[in-house]
Design goal:
The structure is a homodimer. Helices cover about 40% and strands about 15% of the residues of chain A. Chain A is of the alpha/beta class and about 375 residues long. The longest helix of chain A is centred in the last third of the chain and has 17 residues. The structure holds a DNA duplex (16 and 16 nucleotides).
Chain lengths: ~375, ~375
DNA sequence: GTGAAAGCGCTAACAA
DNA sequence: TTGTTAGCGCTTTCAC
């Protein structure tokens, strides 16, 4: 099979001028003249056209049809044209399951996300889907909802569907599925978790750059009491973010108080809870950096309910830069983690492994960086703060 | 194939106590004693176990393995047990593509959404996935991004993957794909669009109830100048919502000014633009009802930037009640459209058609209602308003 | 109850 | 270049 030539649109633009005509509902009139169906015609009647039907109409062998579809160069232009005409006329669509069965490749990539209702992930999925479709792949999406059993079930289903690779975008909860996936020799990409397996790639997320920039920004504004609402410690990524925060604070020569670092859960609710815990403190910080945007938005909400104004009374910084961040009140200052970059890296990692596993120069590690986006939720602290 | 018995977890709980043990990475030691592989052993070596491997280990025929897997009652308990043991031992997973190829059913449902980055849809997808997985189905997600070509491509890919049905959740842009889907005899469900085809079902959305409640709420608060930020007129649902708004306003005995109904595009940006257009008016309305929550959140943002306070200076009502609505500033009063109900209806419609297409009492129409959720974005208008 | 065997629609190896 | 043919892994008759 010619993997490099899998047509992205159907049929490929080169051959047929307007591929979307294919989908016209016009009744198809077949010209089988002289062709005798291999099986009883009563069985064939009313069925969708298959490769044999196309071959019969185009008066070629099924191998030629297959070669044409797969962009093999071994077909003469004359036959190629006839085949595409027949395909068009019959409104034929190849059966992916059959192709997968014989070729051993499904052109399906799985993507498992932590929680699809966190806007970070739909944006990631959208980018991933766009890239995949552009390369002739389909995607299977699953949301693990941070539950080990669900995650395991996602993985099993993907295995049954014979995906060519899985992007595990759970940011640190992946252990339970790794074994099965790796054991079956399926290419995987992980975010932030290195695995000593030839089929596993890693996307290293450089949070440090963005977090350091955020701290510098806050310090230059005059803040000295900066809190951190961390993500759940079950997530590698949450721990990395917290560590980067600590390093940045230390680099700025600032103290870290134990009670200023609170473990939340990356949800809106968690942000509210974290804020309330912070408010109880005698020495309340003047700025809060959050492990993700959902937490930050929760803080915005809680501060509003408590009558504290952002940014006058309190500065808030998020992390992710979800589309929404621009529309919060006030617009959220946040550390951007590009979904498009992440999706690109994940896809590239999988594609390499799936299409050229033997290549000696496979890239096993991808870097995605972060940067600070300053909006309206940060300002100098109050003089008496 | 026994469709009613497709196991939801693997292997079914009835037979094996802890199915997740299956995924243990423990090296599998095979006992092929006496069994001769059908093809050369060099080819079989290193390959994933298939149904023949299981049959050999369990010392039964592949037919028995197949029957066991599919929950056929024609297998004795003795053999059933042996088969499940072999499956467990080999860590065997059936190949979905092969099953689909021969059975003609993929146990795959497609779901096409308008725009996955609108939080309404991830929530819908999550519910749909949960229900589908619980019934042994897998889902294929696609986002049409309100683009006809993309939509057509989604549909074609789903057709190639031989989905058993498609939920077209684009709320009124579906025409381009309907033909192909219906033409191929695939069951489909549409939101709000009735199609005269035996394979098509419709989910009727009763916006009127929620919209009437919203208008009554606003009127009881004292509002008389109520604007509507509509969705794009290319969407059936947007038009329905607008009509229901007009009816509700008329029912309340209020006037509708032409300039108070503005066509937006259901995005955050659209809400901002709509608000700004409204602000230019001499007789500015004291309340704005929006065709969806994204628009309403955009309005909240624009009003904040313009220095208008919500709800003191302006009341805002959304529609959808996305998870976020509770966390906007102020919390958004909105008309709830339950994603869970919608997902349930969509799945049920597809399942019926897919599993029992001949049934005389197939339900072709499902109703999902709406209700008003009052939060903090509505209040009496200013005395001078 | 159980097994043997015929394909599902397609690709790839081999022939011509 | 083109065609013939053997399966991919499974379900499903049809025998026994």
């Amino acid at each position: 099979m010619n993997h490099g030539n899998w047509p992205t649109c159907w049929p490929p633009l080169i051959v047929v001028e307007n591929p979307w005509e294919l989908f016209s509902p016009a009744p198809v009139s077949l010209h089988y003249d002289g062709w005798v169906p291999r099986r009883s015609s009563s069985k064939t009647a009313g069925k969708l056209p298959d490769i044999r039907t196309v071959a019969a109409v185009a008066k070629v062998s099924i191998a030629t049809v297959s070669r044409t579809i797969n962009g093999s160069s071994l077909v003469s232009d004359r036959l190629k044209k006839r085949v595409w005409q027949a395909i068009k006329q019959l409104n034929y669509l190849p059966n992916t399951h059959a192709r997968t069965l014989v070729s051993g490749r499904s052109r399906l990539f799985g993507i498992i996300v932590e929680n699809i209702t966190n806007p970070f992930f739909p944006e990631l999925i959208r980018s991933f889907e766009e890239i995949a479709v552009a390369h002739g792949y389909e995607i299977l999406v699953s949301s693990s909802n941070s539950d080990a059993a669900t995650l395991a079930s996602c993985a099993r289903r993907m295995l049954e569907r014979k995906v060519d690779g899985v992007a595990v975008m759970t940011f640190g909860e992946e252990e339970p599925v790794l074994d099965q996936l790796v054991h079956r020799g399926i290419p995987i990409v992980l975010a932030e978790f290195k695995l000593e397996d030839p089929k596993a790639s890693t996307i290293v997320l450089d949070y440090a750059t963005g977090i350091h920039a955020a701290i510098r920004h806050l310090v230059s504004l005059g803040h000295r009491a900066i809190a951190f609402l961390a993500g759940p410690h079950s997530l590698h990524s949450a721990i990395t973010r917290e560590n980067d925060f600590r390093t940045a604070i230390a680099a700025a020569g600032l103290p870290i108080r134990k009670e200023w670092v609170i473990e939340c859960d990356h949800t809106l609710k968690g942000g509210v809870a974290g804020y309330e815990q912070l408010r109880k403190l005698r020495n309340c910080p003047s700025a809060i950096v959050c492990s993700n945007d959902m937490t930050a938005i929760g803080v915005l909400r809680a501060a509003y309910m408590a009558g504290q104004r952002v940014p006058q009374d309190l500065s808030v910084v998020g992390l992710d830069d979800v589309d929404f961040a621009e529309y919060t009140l006030p617009p959220l200052t946040t550390i951007r983690l590009s979904r498009a970059d992440l999706a690109r890296a994940a896809f590239e990692a999988l594609r390499q492994q799936a299409e050229d596993p033997a290549s000696p120069r496979i890239k096993r590690e991808f870097l995605v960086s972060t940067s600070l986006v300053v909006r309206g939720s940060t300002a100098p602290p109050r003089a008496d703060g």
